[in-house]
Structure prediction request, 240 residues.
Amino acid sequence: MTDERVLWITGGGSGMGAASARAAAADGWTVVLSGRRTDRLEEVASAIRAAGGTADVQPLDAADPDAVAAARDAVLERHGRLDALVLAAGLNAPERRWDDQDLGTFRSIVDTNLTAVVTVVDAALPALRASGGVVVVVSSYAGWSFQPGAGVAYSASKTALGSVVRTLNQQEAAHGVRATHLCPGDVATDFLDQRPTVPDAEARAVMLQPADVARTVSFVLEAPSHVRIDELVVSPVSQR
Prediction:
């Protein structure tokens, strides 16, 4: 169908990725959900379909370049186009200081938060050039403002995403490609379980909810083609 708009989401099985998928599907996007946990992806896809939306599942380890290329080929074979990316997969660990971090874990965090983002964008870029597509990189408040508790690997990887987005916008504007460095503050998702001290229900109640971030993602995706939102910070009033 010529009016189909295809959105590929990594980290689509939970949290902000899943919420963004539901919101985009409600706006009429065909959503392709990727992530490592097929069961979680299928749950999100089923909920989208039950609500009248269109969703496919494409399991993926975004840290594997060959798997990313194969997933991209599958998306294009199935839908014939790609109009947007939302990159929402993320990783951290409780051991996040110089005096307790593990270098193997450091590499895993950087691979997930930074290298995998670049890998997916690089693979998708020819299709995005053809469509004048949109890229939403879900970064972090720690990618916008130094947060002492975020961790060495997490802070470094999320800060680097700002440069990834800026180079993408500077070099791909001629093709109509637009990218956003989205920096949410505290969000009440399972990701909080990776903190050294896990927030309780009272603390989570005053944080952003996944649906809040999803509305922000929808705002970016629905912007006119001549509008680029280079960076967007959204935080709860309680953020310190």
Summary: The first strand starts at residue 6 and ends at 10.
